[in-house]
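With this grant's support, we have settled on a layout for protein records. A representative record follows, to show the layout.
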Amino acid sequence: MIYKNCIDDITSDMLNVFFVGWLNPPNQQTHLKLLKNSSKVVIAFEEKTNQVVGFITAISDGVLSAYIPFLEVLPQYQNKGVGKELVNRMLKQLEGIYMIDICCDDNLVPFYEKYGMLKSNGMLKRNYKMQSGI
């Protein structure tokens, strides 16, 4: 597995079957745009298959705050340390930032607590008709 902080050599056809369970998942071109427009990104790349198998993104002001909207690992690569490595690498990139926020489902709280994160309340608004992206 290769981990990269740059997506310059990534094409949309290397982004395969992410956003599992989403009603209206972004297509591969929108997924690539999402990665390019993020402040920070780390990808897990499998050379044998020439595919991205996991990614994490952050949106940040570069001063005080960062938000991690996505951590995705393809199902067949889950529970193999890929997600853990992606989080570790992203937190390393963000280590000078005051606040790093993540919204997650309750079943993922124990995963993020391992990184010293605290459970908190949050408010969300979702426009599901736009879930596939612009």
Q: What stands out?
A: Strands lie at 2-4, 40-46, 51-60, 65-73, 99-101. The two ends are 31 Å apart (CA to CA). The chain is about 20% helix and 25% strand. The chain has one domain: 2-130.
